[in-house]
């Protein structure tokens, strides 16, 4: 797939993030591939997955694949180095998601240097997971193809809201030319629709669709609060 068709296929669509945390019952690439397949049946325009084995497991699915590699316990852990980004691309991701903040990266490279290095190796698109408008402006200048709001509320630059950061989506869409993928704390279909209205190019939803433990806890907590 070339870059333009990939973006066109995501435009106005739902990207489903299929991830499970280490130690959870669903933490298996085969399970994540099955969840991704089910999401496509439901209308997902794209899939986002974490880890090299998971990317390989879903690479043949008929929608664009956003791949990332979470590694380390430092602030920057989403595809934190050029080596991680190259591995994600080689595993079959159409789009490589990397930390798109202005924070120091573990390998000492700047975001721009990471993007240049990845472009020299692969024609995969690059999604910068940002935490603020300043991040997005810098990521666009560095050459990112897609700007995500993934890290809003997690870098100290913006408050962590109960739902999606619709204000940030609007700010980035108004200031930057690159497509904005809204991601982070989308709990309802109404949230997703509001993101498109705010200027998002596409919306990525994970927990509310693919994380049974969290979804179950929402219902269980509600029932507990309703007990006399």
TrEMBL record:
Pfam families: NanE. Pathway: Amino-sugar metabolism; N-acetylneuraminate degradation; D-fructose 6-phosphate from N-acetylneuraminate: step 3/5. It comes from the Bacteria. It comes from Microbacterium algeriense. The keyword Isomerase applies. Gene3D superfamilies: Aldolase class I. Belongs to the NanE family. It is an enzyme of class 5 (isomerase). It catalyses: an N-acyl-D-glucosamine 6-phosphate = an N-acyl-D-mannosamine 6-phosphate. InterPro entries: Aldolase_TIM, NanE, RibuloseP-bd_barrel. GO terms for molecular function: N-acylglucosamine-6-phosphate 2-epimerase activity. Keywords: Carbohydrate metabolism, Isomerase. Its EC number is 5.1.3.9. This is Putative N-acetylmannosamine-6-phosphate 2-epimerase. Converts N-acetylmannosamine-6-phosphate (ManNAc-6-P) to N-acetylglucosamine-6-phosphate (GlcNAc-6-P).
